[in-house]
Design brief:
37% helix, Rossmann fold, disordered N terminus, 6-stranded parallel beta sheet, 2 domains, 18 strands, globular, alpha/beta, 456 residues
C-alpha cells in the first residue's frame, strides 16, 4: 500500500539513522518509454534509501501507458491523494506545467518542496518554459550537460546532481534464433522511438554509415529497432520512410513490432555493437543499456551521454554544431530561437568505426568489457542516492528558496505546438485526462463531506 506519514527511520549510506522523508513520485511510471524506465529506477533509489514513497502515474499518450505494474501498490488515483509534501517529477516539462496548473493545491500551494528531474536534450532551454519552471524549487540534473543548461539559464531554483541508475532485469541472455538473426554475422543494432523526434535520434546517419562501410556482400548486418512504432492511429510514418531508405539492402533489417523490455535487452545482447548517431540526447538510455551488457557503442560525442562515455569505453564520433531543426515542434527554431544548436555527426567516422569493429573481435571485447565495468560503477554510485540528503537539507531550509507562484496559468498552446498533429493529439488527450481527474477530485471531496450513501 502507499506509504503514508507514519514514522519511519531511513538509513544513510554510512549506516546511521536519518530524518524521516516522504516523497511523491510523479511520472510516466507504467509506460514503456525512456522516461518511464527512469521514473521506475528513481523509485528504486528512494526505496534503497528507505524513503516512504507514493506514486502518481501520468499517461504519456499514444497507447504507451499501463505496460509496467511494478509499483502498482504505491499508486494513487488523483494528485490530491498524494500523502507527502515533497514532489519528485520525472516528466517532460510541458506535462509537468500542465499538471501544476490543473492541480495547484497538490503541486503548488501545499507542497513543501517540488523537485524536477530534467532530462532535456539541448544546451539551451526554450524561453516559454522558463516561467513554468518557477514551480520547481529544485532542478535535478541527470547529466553534466543538463546541469550546464539549467544553471546558465535559470536564476531561481538550485540545480543538484541526480544521476540515473540503470536497473537491468535478471537473466538477460542473447538469443539470435529468437529474432531470426544469423549466427555468423557481425551485427550492429540501433534503437529509437520515432515519437521522440526522428531528426534528433537520426537513424538516417547510422544507416548511411553502414551503407558506406559495407557493400552488402559480407557477413555484416544492421538491425534497426523501432520502439512504439504502432500508435493508436496506425503505423508511424517512420516505418515506411526507413523501409524505403533500406530498400535493396537485405543486410539492413527493420524490427518494428512491440517487444517487452527484457526482450529488447536480449536483442541488444544478441548483437555485437550498438550505434547511436544522435544529434542530441538528454541522457541516452539505450546507450547505457548496451554498455551495461558489455557492448561497444558507436555514438556521437555530444550531449548527455558524455556524462558516462569517454574515449576508453566507447567508440566516439566527432561532429559539427548546426542549427536545431527537428521534426517535432519542440525541436524547431521557431520554438527554440535562432541560437539553438545540436550536433551533426560525421558519418565517415562512424563508418570507419563499423569497419574496425567488424574486423577486430578482440577490440570489440575489450571496449565492451570497459563499458560494462564503467556502467556498473555508474549504477553503484547512482544507487547511493546522495541527492536524497540534498533534498532533505533543502527542505529544511525552505525559507531561503525563492517563493513559488501561487498558480501557473500557462496555456497549453505555449508548450505544445498545435500545428503538429501528433503533438496536438497528445496534448488533447492529456487535457482530457486532467479534466477527468479534476472531476473525480470534486466528487471525492463531495463524498468526504457527506455521510449519505452514493446515489446512481
Amino acid at each position: 500500500m502507499p506509504a503514508g506519514d507514519s514514522p519511519m527511520t531511513a538509513v544513510s549510506q554510512d549506516g546511521l539513522p536519518t530524518r524521516e522523508l516522504g516523497i511523491n513520485v510523479i511520472g510516466n511510471v507504467t509506460s514503456n518509454t525512456g522516461l518511464g524506465v527512469h521514473a521506475r529506477n528513481m523509485i528504486r533509489v528512494l526505496q534503497a534509501r528507505g524513503v516512504p514513497i507514493s506514486v502518481f502515474d501520468v499517461d504519456p499518450g499514444l497507447g504507451r501507458a499501463g505496460r509496467d505494474a511494478t509499483f502498482a501498490a504505491y499508486r494513487v488515483q488523483t494528485p490530491d491523494e498524494l500523502p507527502h509534501r515533497i514532489n519528485f517529477f520525472v516528466l517532460h516539462p510541458p506535462a509537468l506545467f500542465s499538471l501544476a496548473a490543473a492541480f495547484p493545491d497538490a503541486f503548488v500551494r501545499t507542497a513543501n518542496l517540488n523537485v524536477g528531474l530534467l532530462l532535456w536534450e539541448l544546451g539551451t532551454l526554450p524561453a516559454t518554459w522558463i516561467p513554468g519552471l518557477a514551480v520547481l524549487d529544485v532542478i535535478g540534473a541527470a547529466t553534466h550537460f543538463v546541469a550546464s543548461a539549467a544553471s546558465s539559464m535559470l536564476e531561481g531554483p538550485p540545480t543538484i546532481s541526480i544521476p540515473c541508475p540503470l536497473h537491468l532485469p535478471e537473466r538477460v541472455v542473447p538469443s539470435r534464433p529468437r529474432f531470426g538473426l544469423p549466427d555468423q554475422a557481425t551485427l550492429f543494432v540501433l534503437s529509437f522511438e520515432p515519437n521522440s523526434d526522428m531528426r534528433r535520434k537520426n537513424p538516417f546517419a547510422a544507416i548511411e554509415a553502414f551503407r558506406r562501410a559495407f557493400d552488402g556482400k559480407g557477413p555484416q548486418q544492421l538491425i534497426v529497432k523501432l520502439n512504439n512504432a504502432a500508435g493508436q492511429g496506425g503505423a508511424h510514418p517512420a516505418v515506411a520512410e526507413l523501409s524505403a531508405l533500406c530498400d535493396g539492402r537485405p543486410d539492413i533489417r527493420i524490427i518494428d513490432q512491440s517487444l517487452a523490455y527484457q526482450d529488447v535487452l536480449s536483442l541488444y545482447a544478441s548483437c555485437d555493437a550498438f550505434v547511436s548517431l544522435h544529434r542530441a540526447e538528454g541522457l541516452g538510455l539505450g546507450l547505457m543499456e548496451a554498455m551495461a551488457l558489455g557492448k561497444p557503442v558507436i555514438a556521437t560525442a555530444w550531449s548527455g551521454n558524455m556524462t558516462f562515455m569517454d574515449h576508453a569505453n566507447a567508440c566516439l564520433v566527432g561532429y559539427e554544431l548546426v542549427p536545431v531543426d527537428g521534426s517535432l515542434p519542440v525541436y524547431r527554431r521557431a520554438f527554440l530561437g535562432e541560437g539553438a544548436r545540436w550536433a551533426d555527426p560525421r558519418v565517415d567516422e562512424a563508418a570507419a568505426w563499423m569497419k574496425t569493429l567488424a574486423g577486430d573481435v578482440h577490440l570489440r571485447s575489450s571496449i565492451g568489457a570497459k563499458a560494462k565495468a564503467d556502467m556498473a560503477r555508474h549504477h553503484e554510485s547512482a544507487m547511493r542516492g546522495h541527492f536524497v540528503d540534498e533534498i532533505r537539507a533543502i527542505a529544511e531550509q525552505r525559507s531561503f528558496l525563492r517563493k513559488r507562484p501561487a498558480r501557473l496559468t500557462l496555456p497549453i498552446g505555449q508548450l505544445w505546438d498545435a500545428a503538429d498533429t501528433r503533438a496536438a493529439t497528445t496534448a488533447a488527450k492529456f487535457r482530457r485526462q486532467l479534466q477527468r481527474m479534476a472531476q473525480r477530485r470534486v466528487l471525492w471531496r463531495f463524498r468526504r463531506g457527506h455521510s449519505t450513501p452514493d446515489v446512481d
